[in-house]
Specification:
Elements (H helix, E strand, L loop, with lengths): L1 H9 L24 E2 L5 H4 L1 H22 L1 E5 L19 E5 L2 H27 L4 E6 L3 H9 L6 E6 L9 E4 L3 E5 L5 E6 L5 E5 L4 E2 L2 E2 L2 H13 L1 H17 L1
Antiparallel strand pairs: 1-4, 1-10, 2-3, 4-5, 5-6, 7-8, 8-9, 10-11
Helix pairs in contact: 3-4, 6-7
């Protein structure tokens, strides 16, 4: 038993949930965010309330379906009654009986899957909203010193804080492994990840970019410049503007 416990202690479990920036070797102290969304969308502010309401409704629907979903069943007619005697519809005798278990079970499973799926979409969507964003040097001082000696700039790291993160938490990734993507919504930009599925959402309406409240047009321009540099960023911004005008 002691050997088994020693082995279990040696197993390093993968981190679940938001990670602290300190554990990732990143500090944003005294750093100005390049993006601050300002006020979150209403559903992002009320996500937990919506999830609780969804789960309560789902549990009630499952209980009603499994235990109370019934159908009308007529009772056999009295054999003493002549078949030629007209029967008044109001006098038809019957009662409600539970539907077959397979019907109730399938419908209960559908209710459960739908409710849990909606809760997962709400929580997942909230975790992909960018609340604040920073670009900072990489976490390794040795790597930064080597890059300086080789006349190369140290790798820039992108720090994304969603509504799920506290001030000292965030998702960290190299900036070169991300890209800016246009959204079908005119007031939104997306951050695509080159080595992971999914994307992050940047709402531009009322957001602060580089510490300033800018128009949507100027906010797009500033983000492209920050991401790709002055020359390339401006070219990509102008190309995107042509696409928008053509659409």
């Amino acid at each position: 038993m002691s050997a088994l416990l020693a082995r279990l202690k040696g197993v390093r479990l993968s981190h679940v949930g938001p990670r602290s920036l300190k554990s990732q070797g990143i500090s944003i102290e005294n750093a100005q965010p390049i993006y601050d969304c300002g006020k979150l969308a209403w559903w992002a502010r009320w996500t937990y309330f919506l999830v609780i309401a969804d789960l309560v409704v789902t549990a009630s629907a499952c209980e009603l379906t499994l235990n109370h979903w019934s159908m009308w069943e007529e009772l056999p007619t009295d054999p003493t009654t002549s078949p030629t005697t007209p029967v008044d519809p109001k006098e038809v005798v019957g009662h409600y009986v539970p539907r077959p278990l397979w019907q109730r079970g399938l419908f209960t499973l559908a209710n459960f899957a739908g409710g849990v799926g909606l809760a997962a979409v709400l929580l997942g969507g909230r975790s992909r909203i960018v609340r604040r964003m920073f670009i900072v040097p990489g976490p390794s001082p040795a790597a930064a010193a080597a890059a300086t000696q080789s006349a190369k700039s140290p790798e820039r790291m992108l720090v994304i804080q969603s509504p799920l993160h506290t001030k000292g938490q965030g998702s960290v990734m190299p900036l070169r492994r991300t890209r800016l993507i246009h959204s079908p919504e005119k007031t939104e930009m997306l951050i695509g990840l080159k080595d992971r599925p999914g994307h992050y959402s940047l709402g531009l309406q009322g957001a602060a970019v580089d510490g300033r409240r800018l128009s949507i047009w100027d906010a797009r321009k500033a983000l492209f410049t920050t991401w790709y540099g002055e020359r390339k960023g401006m070219q990509m911004f102008l190309n995107s503007a042509k696409v928008k005008d053509a659409a």
